[in-house]
Automatic annotation (TrEMBL):
<keyword id="KW-0436">Ligase</keyword>
<comment type="similarity">
    <text>Belongs to the class-II aminoacyl-tRNA synthetase family. Alax-L subfamily.</text>
</comment>
<dbReference type="GO" id="GO:0140896">
    <property type="term" value="P:cGAS/STING signaling pathway"/>
</dbReference>
<dbReference type="InterPro" id="IPR050058">
    <property type="entry name" value="Ala-tRNA_ligase"/>
</dbReference>
<comment type="subunit">
    <text>Monomer. Interacts with ANKRD16; the interaction is direct.</text>
</comment>
<dbReference type="GO" id="GO:0141207">
    <property type="term" value="F:peptide lactyltransferase (ATP-dependent) activity"/>
</dbReference>
<dbReference type="GO" id="GO:0000049">
    <property type="term" value="F:tRNA binding"/>
</dbReference>
<feature type="binding site">
    <location>
        <position position="753"/>
    </location>
    <ligand>
        <name>Zn(2+)</name>
    </ligand>
</feature>
<dbReference type="InterPro" id="IPR045864">
    <property type="entry name" value="aa-tRNA-synth_II/BPL/LPL"/>
</dbReference>
<dbReference type="InterPro" id="IPR018164">
    <property type="entry name" value="Ala-tRNA-synth_IIc_N"/>
</dbReference>
<keyword id="KW-0832">Ubl conjugation</keyword>
<dbReference type="GO" id="GO:0070143">
    <property type="term" value="P:mitochondrial alanyl-tRNA aminoacylation"/>
</dbReference>
<protein>
    <recommendedName>
        <fullName>Alanine--tRNA ligase</fullName>
        <ecNumber>6.1.1.7</ecNumber>
    </recommendedName>
</protein>
<keyword id="KW-0496">Mitochondrion</keyword>
<feature type="binding site">
    <location>
        <position position="636"/>
    </location>
    <ligand>
        <name>Zn(2+)</name>
    </ligand>
</feature>
<dbReference type="InterPro" id="IPR002318">
    <property type="entry name" value="Ala-tRNA-lgiase_IIc"/>
</dbReference>
<keyword id="KW-0067">ATP-binding</keyword>
Length: 985
């Protein structure tokens, strides 16, 4: 009966998920009730219900940026901040350790990683990329299923006044494969609360068993659903609230163990709750969204939002309304929390979201330029009271959104042209070429998300060459990993013959001065110029000079001038693209430029023919270049800080940087101490904090001689040479009397630098190793990555602190002590590999070493004590004889082995086998055979006989062995053990 009901309900739920319409509800469902409450009132009512009626402490929402948890892209549930409590790693001295019952409203983003609802947004009426999760928690068994269900029911039906017959609940129906019983306790609680039996449904582990990850705390959950149809007919269910009961731990071997502490963890989507209470058809018709929909209508002058979905939504206008409204909320909240659109990780996800919003707003809603930014104040108005950081950063949000929108619009326009142009050349059944799609993409040049390129093609009815695209993606990944360890790969080169020929013809070296023409806008962004140039010579892959190249050919281009930075001085080459003047719609991707004898060779794949004499326009990949500039200025600051910390004689031995990270080799007598590493970071941070101007000027090389403090590398410098000086104009720094170069960073350098140091943001040294005696290689990250590294470090330090505190409290329980020791091992692995400050890594490694030793000693002591006690008991029970086969209660296999050993020491002529039953039918086994028994009687074979009888495994030596198995009939296992031994003795 339950099964068929479950199947019926599953069908219903599936049906609901497929039909995203929230039924045809009237706007006012509960006619006798007062007018629908505002979202603010609904949120407040939730919080005050748990605070005032049920004594919960209110905890503020954390930022959507996960603090020190690299496993998450964004905070995606209310429980994220309480993870240390669930994992048992919370510092006993921290405020959080005292949490018993808490409630909050958490900002969540589900747009990447394990929970990704991005694809659903706009298509259905109940999923958002940003939403608010209302939740209540009871930690350490403060309350459990009964109270949690009762509170939820009371809130929904009495406080919010939702009619009981519109609510359905589900509970965990058990999982025979995992040996888990149905959660009948939850079922009975719902029935006792008066939920009608036909509204109580059971589901399998897929739906109703919650797990945090592959290992860790987990447990059954019970969900409350709302029936949108509500006329007694087929229900249309939408999930409102999920109540999770954490009571098991998923071990590394996949088994489930009961947790020493049980917890309640619940989450309810505010938007869905408000929709129910406001009697609307979807979350978008609530006061959380309607001001945005109104603003979109006004700003774009489109027909009003009608809430249509799927095929009914002709022209996808309503979908566009939803996408734009959803995405601008997410953008605003994320930027306010410090996640800005960027190049990798969460920032890249945000960049995609922004671009998706721009596309829907401009292409479908015909929004005017700058429109997205104009929606930010509406978001601030609806959410600013609950989350004041939105108000605080609203100007910055508007700026960032508008700048990125403008950049994207320009790319989008060009992308559309290119697609049209390419299509004209394609036959009716041709695939769209992967190279063109790639050059349009985020990884390529125009920065259009690939899924968007695909969508644009889908609209034109062409198919993309996906296999070709996958190949390009793989090549890009390989290229990137090579960039991380540069210098092995050599791209196209000019050979001696080519160089000789150029010199013979009197071709002047490439004028690459335009690489320095960029400026800082008042808003803080950089503006890069383009550069027009003429093709002087073309080269094939093998270096042969040619007058023209054909379609699809990889080639080298020599131009009269360029704004590309060619790899030199440890700065990675620029990348970007060029177009032929007069044919701006065909992009020639340029992955790299190299300098050979003063000539700069651009590597390109020609999508069309190209010939000597052609005029081209060059565009550098701005995000890439800016990343290099940040890292290069950071490298100078690091060099300076190292001298400040280690002494003026400290010599740089080399460096390399790309937008991801920087590497710096420095001559040292010994590895840097944690204090020195910290001091270096501190000095850099200070210079960054002062946002000093960076001056660059070309001067005669002779002028740089004899300047105290000026850094020369073992390099040949051009004359004139470029000087880069931080905080002091170059002329002043080169004044023999000024001593400026002793007080700030002044270097001879041809790299491209920031114009002010502030944009470095932060610098963290995340790695340090000895290359050879006397040389230390440092790895560092900057900006957002540096901040993340600090957060990871802080989180790990807290975990180590908490572990230390747990250890110092001592435990009389072997299993608890073993868990602590395992945690220590896990923490050591995490600390060894995390991207975190190196000084902190070293400190934590030292601490953990000591802690691990102490934990192991404590375990040994506890085990020995426990074993001695159990040995005594067994000796009392068994008189002297050749054999002891018995059961012992312990949760630890190593205690069991110790008991066996101690028994054999006390009774050397006795062979011993002990079994220890565990929950769920698991059995531990240990044995030892007495000296002088027949050679055929070995401990390993004995354990194997018994454990394979229990369907398990065993291992060990001739004398001692251990194993595990599973059986419901322990007596039979003991009989097997006795019979085997008697047979051998
Ligand atoms: P669904 O099956 O609807 O995607 P879920 O099982 O992913 O929901 P949970 O992870 O249990 O949801 O989250 C708890 C609550 O948060 C849900 O009951 C729902 O009310 C709300 N919720 C989850 N995802 C979203 C989303 N993308 N947008 C709005 N609310 C959401
Ligand atoms: Mg979901």
């Amino acid at each position: 009966m339950a099964a068929s009901m479950a199947a019926a309900a599953r069908r219903l739920r599936r049906a609901f998920r497929r039909s995203p319409l929230w039924g045809g509800l009237s706007r006012r469902p509960f006619s006798s009730e007062p007018p629908p409450a505002s979202a603010t009132a609904v949120r407040d009512a939730f919080l005050s219900f748990f605070r005032d009626r049920h004594g919960h402490r209110l905890v503020p929402s954390t930022s959507v940026r996960p603090r020190g948890d690299p496993s998450l892209l964004f905070v995606n549930a209310g429980m994220n901040q309480f993870k240390p409590i669930f994992l048992g790693t919370v510092d006993p001295r921290s405020e959080m350790a005292g949490f018993r019952r808490v409630a909050n409203s958490q900002k969540c983003v589900r747009a990447g990683g394990r929970h990704n609802d991005l694809e659903d947004v706009g298509r259905d009426l109940s999923h958002h990329t940003f939403f608010e999760m209302l939740g209540n928690w009871a930690f350490g068994g403060e309350y459990f299923k009964e109270e949690a269900c009762r509170m939820a029911w009371e809130l929904l039906t009495q406080v919010y006044g939702i009619p009981e017959d519109r609510l359905w609940v589900s509970y965990f129906g058990g999982d025979p494969k995992a040996g888990l019983d149905p959660d009948l306790e939850s079922r009975d609680i719902w029935l006792s609360l008066g939920v009608c039996a036909s509204h109580v449904l059971s589901f399998g582990p897929q739906e109703n068993f919650w797990e945090m990850g592959n290992t860790g705390p987990c447990g059954p959950c019970t969900e409350i659903h709302y029936d949108l149809a509500g006329r007694g007919g087929a229900p249309q269910l939408v999930e409102l609230w999920n109540l999770v009961f954490i009571q098991h731990n998923r071990e590394a071997d996949g088994s489930l163990q009961p947790l020493p502490q049980r917890h309640v963890d619940t989450g309810m989507g505010l938007e869905r709750l408000v929709a129910v209470l406001q009697g609307t058809r979807s979350t978008y018709d609530t006061d959380l969204f309607s001001p945005l929909l109104d603003a979109i209508q006004q700003g774009c002058g489109v027909s009003p939002y009608l809430g249509r979905v799927g095929a009914a939504d002709e022209g996808r206008t309503d979908m566009a309304y939803r996408v734009v409204a959803d995405h601008i909320r997410t953008l605003s909240v994320c930027i306010a929390d410090g996640v800005c659109p960027g190049m990798s990780g969460a920032p890249l996800v945000l960049r995609r979201i922004l671009r998706r919003a721009v596309r829907f707003s401009t292409e479908v809603l015909r929004a005017p330029p700058g429109f997205l930014g104009s929606l930010v104040p509406v978001v601030v108005e609806t959410l600013g009271d609950a989350y004041p950081e939105l108000r605080k950063h609203s100007a910055q949000i508007v700026n960032l959104v508008s700048e990125d929108e403008a950049a994207f619009l320009a790319s989008l326009q060009r992308g559309r042209h290119i697609i049209d142009q390419t299509l004209r050349r394609l036959g009716p059944s041709d695939l769209f070429p992967a190279e063109v799609a790639w050059s349009l993409s985020l990884s390529g040049n125009l920065g259009l998300p690939l899924d968007l390129v695909e969508l644009m093609l889908e609209e034109k009815g062409v198919q993309l060459d996906s296999a070709g695209l996958a190949r390009l993606a793989q090549e890009e990944a390989q290229h990137r990993s090579r960039q991380a360890e540069p210098a092995q790969e050599r791209g196209l080169q000019l050979n001696v013959h080519a160089l000789g020929e150029l010199q013979r013809r009197g071709v002047p070296p490439t004028d690459d001065s335009p690489k320095y023409s960029y400026s800082l806008r008042p808003s803080g962004g950089y503006e890069f110029g383009t550069c027009e140039a003429q093709v002087l010579q073309l080269y094939t892959e093998d270096g042969t000079a040619v007058a023209s190249v054909g379609k699809g050919q990889r080639c080298g281009l020599l131009l009269d001038k360029t704004n590309f930075y060619a790899e030199q001085g440890g700065q990675a080459s620029d990348r970007g693209y060029l177009v032929r003047v007069g044919q701006e719609d065909v992009l020639f991707p340029v992955p790299r430029a190299q300098v050979c004898g003063g000539f700069i060779l651009h590597e390109a794949v020609a999508p069309e023919g190209l010939k000597v004499g052609d005029q081209v326009q060059l565009h550098v990949d701005e995000a890439w270049r800016l990343g290099c500039m940040e890292k290069h200025t950071a490298t100078h600051l690091l060099n300076w800080a190292l001298r400040q910390t280690l002494g003026p004689g400290t010599e740089q031995q080399g460096s390399h940087l790309n937008p991801e990270r920087l590497r710096f080799d420095v001559a040292t007598q010994a590895p840097l101490t944690p204090e020195q590493l910290r001091a270096v970071e501190g000095t850099v941070q200070e210079a960054v904090g002062q946002d000093e101007a960076v001056y660059m000027e070309e001067v005669a090389l002779a002028r740089t001689a004899h300047i105290p403090g000026l850094r020369f590398l073992d390099e040949v410098y051009p004359d004139p040479v470029r000087v880069v000086s931080v905080g002091v104009p170059v002329a002043e720094a080169l004044d023999l009397a000024s001593q400026a170069a002793l007080q700030t960073s002044v270097e001879l350098c041809c790299g491209t630098h920031l114009l002010r140091t502030g944009a470095v943001g932060d610098l963290v040294i995340v790695g340090e190793r000895q290359l050879s005696r006397g040389t230390t290689r440092l790895l560092a990250v900057t900006g957002e990555q540096a901040q993340q590294a600090r957060e990871v470090g802080q989180a790990l330090a807290q975990e180590v602190g908490a572990a230390a505190e747990r250890l110092s409290r001592g435990s009389q329980d072997v299993v608890e002590a073993q868990r602590l020791s395992k945690d220590m091992g896990r923490l050591t692995d995490a600390v060894d590999t995390a991207v975190m400050p190196q000084w902190q890594r070293r400190e934590l490694q030292a601490t953990l070493k000591v802690l691990q030793r102490r934990a192991n000693t404590a375990i040994r002591k506890l085990e020995t004590g426990q074993a001695a006690q159990k040995t005594q008991e067994l000796l009392r029970r068994h008189s002297e004889g050749p054999l002891i086969v018995d059961t012992v209660s312990t949760e630890s296999l190593s205690v069991l082995v110790k008991v066996v050993r101690q028994l054999c020491e006390r009774a050397p002529r006795t062979s011993v086998l002990l079994l220890s039953p565990q929950p769920l039918g698991h059995v531990l086994c240990a044995c030892q055979v007495a000296q002088g028994t027949t050679p055929a009687f070995t401990a390993e074979a004995w354990a194997l006989a018994v454990c394979s009888h229990m369907g398990g495994k065993a291992w060990g030596s001739q004398v001692v062995a251990q194993g595990t198995g599973t059986t419901a009939d322990l007596e039979a296992a003991l009989r097997t053990a006795r019979a085997y031994a008697l047979n051998q003795l």
